[in-house]
Design brief:
Elements (H helix, E strand, L loop, with lengths): L3 E7 L3 E8 L4 E8 L3 H4 L2 H15 L7 E8 L2 E3 L4 E3 L12 H9 L3 E5 H12 L8 E6 L3 E7 L2 E2 L29 H5 L1 H14 L5 H7 L6 H9 L3 H25 L3 E5 L7 H14 L2 H6 L1 E4 L6 H10 L4
Parallel strand pairs: 1-4, 4-7, 8-11, 11-12
Antiparallel strand pairs: 1-2, 2-3, 5-6, 8-9, 9-10
Helix pairs in contact: 2-3, 4-12, 6-9, 8-9, 9-10
The protein binds zinc ion.
Zinc ion (ZN) binds next to loops.
Length: 319
């Protein structure tokens, strides 16, 4: 009987699980709330309990699985299978995730960071068309990324793929990392709102976005892109600036790695073709000629499933 894979996408609010075939088709999926109380000490035991419960429910045995793969926030030690500094999980101290899960379930376990897992997912079953050269950018509350080159994730010494901290404006906004002008400060969900507030200060004409901001209303990146699509002049200015920085970052990524695809995902990418077309315009402006014609920008296709699918694909590497 063909073995199965388990993929886990560990996040600050939910933990997503899926059982997949070796070719990456999801057969079962479920999720549980992440309990970050008591320094996140319940998280791994909750994962083990939930997996045991579901294996029993589906009448499956540990030896039917070739492995469990997981994507996690924080700094992941790939060899030891540990995580440290995942602050949205309250994991300040070192967590021996691999040891706990393998001894709890008796199934081989492998872990990588969450952005890398999502990159693998989009590469395998999504916009990456299973190509060996794919870069994934996720635009959410933070901007993250994953690089697949020669068919393998690029890990560097410790922190390759920190696309959110590519510098796009050396004198720009202060970033959480301590630098100024990182892509994340402009193109994350909160960064986009920040750009809107700044441009609204100097904007004099009529614009619904200006009215909402002056009125003290809560606006989101979605509000801004929705208004831009309706040709609200201020919102269009914000979208153009954000997409210009994204295109510049994509051009730099393209010039460095010349991937077949740069895949743009995460919540902000829901702005769709409107966003992609603008990013592409600036990408074409800044990219090296050969890169312009050989690297293609695409929207992600798997949505929330990218994490579990990519995590499961990690388990294919377990020998
Ligand atoms: Zn930064």
């Amino acid at each position: 009987m063909e073995k199965k894979l388990i993929g886990i996408d560990l996040g600050g609010t939910t933990i997503k699980f899926a059982i997949l075939t070796l070719s990456g088709e999801i057969q079962q999926k479920w999720s549980i709330k992440t309990n970050i109380l008591d320094e996140g000490s319940h998280i791994v035991p909750d994962i083990i309990t939930s997996l045991k419960h579901h294996l029993k429910l589906y009448e499956m045995q540990p030896n039917q699985f070739s492995g469990i793969g997981m994507g996690s926030p924080g700094t992941v030690d790939l060899q030891k299978g540990t995580v440290i500094g995942a602050y949205n999980l309250n994991w300040k101290k070192l967590q021996p995730v691999k040891d706990m899960i393998e001894s709890g379930l008796g199934i081989p376990f492998i872990i990588d960071n969450d952005a890398n897992a999502a990159a693998l997912g989009e590469r395998w079953k999504g916009a990456g068309e299973n190509d060996d050269e794919v870069v994934f950018i996720t635009l959410g509350t933070v901007v993250g990324g994953g690089i697949i080159s020669n068919g393998k994730l690029v890990h560097g010494v410790q922190a390759a793929g920190e696309i959110g901290h590519l510098n796009v404006e050396p004198e720009g906004y202060l970033c959480t990392c301590g630098n100024h002008g990182c892509l994340e400060t402009y193109a994350s969900a909160t960064g986009i709102v920040r750009v809107a507030r700044d441009l609204a200060e100097e904007y004099a004409g009529p614009a619904e976005l200006k009215r909402l901001l002056d009125d003290g209303q809560d606006i989101s990146a979605k509000t801004i892109f929705d208004l831009a699509k309706e040709d609200d002049q201020l919102a269009v200015m914000v979208a153009n600036q954000v997409c210009n920085y994204l295109g510049l970052a994509c051009a730099n990524i393209g010039n460095l790695l010349n991937p077949s695809f740069i895949v743009i995902g995460g919540g902000v990418s829901a702005a769709g073709k409107f966003l992609l077309d603008r990013v592409n315009t600036s990408f074409l402006k800044y990219a090296f000629p050969t890169v312009r014609t050989t690297t293609k920008l695409k929207l992600a296709q798997l949505g929330n499933d990218a994490g579990v699918i990519g995590a499961a694909s990690l388990a294919l590497m377990i020998k």
